[in-house]
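User: For my dataset I need records formatted as: sequence, then structure tokens, nothing else. Please produce one.
Assistant:
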Amino acid sequence: MQAIECQVQSISSLTDYVYKVLLKPSSAVDFLPGQYLNFVMSEDDKRPFSIASSPNAEFIELQIGAFGEDSYAMQVIDHIKASATVTVEIAAGNAHLRSDSERPVLLVAGGTGFSYIKSMFTYLAEQKSQREVIVYWGLRDESACYELEQTQATINSLANGKFIPVVETTSASWQGKEGLVHKTVMTDIASLAPYDIYIAGRFDMVGILRDDFLAHGAEKEHMYADAFAFI
């Protein structure tokens, strides 16, 4: 991995608990859609975050969910807020987009796992991909939603794109899908056998999705998640 100094371009709130960080690297960076970086707090403290931006973007985008005043992620947010420049190591992760595949793409994320799939569907839209691209994003409630219109516009720009946000607990005003995201996937799609499937979320969630998707026809060699190395 290459250590790169970055200027903190901006930091903003997407929700009460999710921050959007834009970093301007001091030199060109090379990564694949779906890879992650290590945020360097110190030489002995390096913390992984998915890269939300396309490799073609001017800025490196991170979406960091931070809960609690002195949590693992909030310490990173506080470091960014206090710094004009930060250092990242880029890039790592084997669950990146297989751009040479012609199979349809299924992207499934829970919470801020959205950053992982955003890099991929944004890149596919930039490449004017003709592949079928289906994006499912699971959220605990409506307050956790962000960038829905922006995401819908990007997916709509694809020749064969579909975006389905799924909320577990909804109000009467919610017009979309309700329930558990992976259950919705399996209701909507009769068999997962044809798909390249990319998954991001909490490790326990990813483990459940893997087992249930395999039982629903998914092919193990066409399922990708960095969490698979740890569960």
